[in-house]
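Researcher: Structure prediction, please.
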Amino acid sequence: MTARPFDLGGKVAIVTGGNGGIGLGMAQGLGEAGAAVAIVGRNAAKSEQAIADLKSRGVKAISVSADVTDKDAIGAMVARARSELGRIDILVNNAGMSIRKPPHVLELDEWERVIDTNLTSAFLCSKAVHSAMKDAGGGKVINIGSMMSIFGASFAPAYAASKGGIVQFTRACACAWAADNIQVNAILPGWIDTDLTRRARVEVNGLHERVLARTPAARWGDISDFAGIAVFLASPASDFVTGTAIPVDGGYSIAG
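Model: Predicted structure follows.
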C-alpha cells in the first residue's frame, strides 16, 4: 500500500448518473480526494449544475452527455473522457431507474428499460473502459447495487432483478480482471434521500415509516454518506478488495 492510501491525485473517474443523488455524492468524494471527474448524464442542465458544484470544491470536472444503453454513445463517452482528462482509472456505474409495478402488471418494454439502464449499461461501460484501465496499469470499477440485491419487493421485479444481476456481474468482472490489476466492487445503498426515493415515498404507502422503523441509524441516508466508500473503493486502500458487495444502509440489512 502507498504512503497515502486514499489519495486520488492524478486519477480520472467516470461517474454515470453523476449529476445528482448518490452519483453526485460519490463524484464529490472522488473529486475532493484529488480525482478529475467526468459526469455522465442525459439532462444537460442538471449536469452543468453538478459541474458547477464540483468546480466550486476545486475539482477538475467535465460533463458528458451520453445514453449509457447505447454502445456507440458509450464508446464516444470513453474516448472524450480519455482525450480531455488524459486517462481513465475509475468507473462508477451508477446510472439507474425503476418502474414500480408488480410483475403481473409490468410490461415487457418496461422490464427491458429497467434492465438495460441498470444492468446492461454497467456491462457496456465496464467493457468500454477495460483497455484504458489495463493500459494505465490497473483501475477500479464500482457498481451500484441496492438493498434489492438482497431483498425482494412486490413493486420492484425488474429493479430487483437488475440489482441482483449487478452483484453477480461484479463478481464475474473481479475474477476476469484481477490479472489486469482492476478491482471491481459493488455498493448496496439502503434507503437514501434522493429524487428517486422521494417518488417512491409518494407511490408506496407507508414506506417512510417502515424505513425509519427498521433502520438502526433511524434516518434516511444522505448522498454525502457515499463520499467515503467511493474514495475507499477507488483508491489504493482497496487494492486487495475485489468482488465484494458492501451495504451502505445505516444498518437496514442487518436489522430484524
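Model: The first strand starts at residue 12 and ends at 16.
Researcher: Thanks, that helps.
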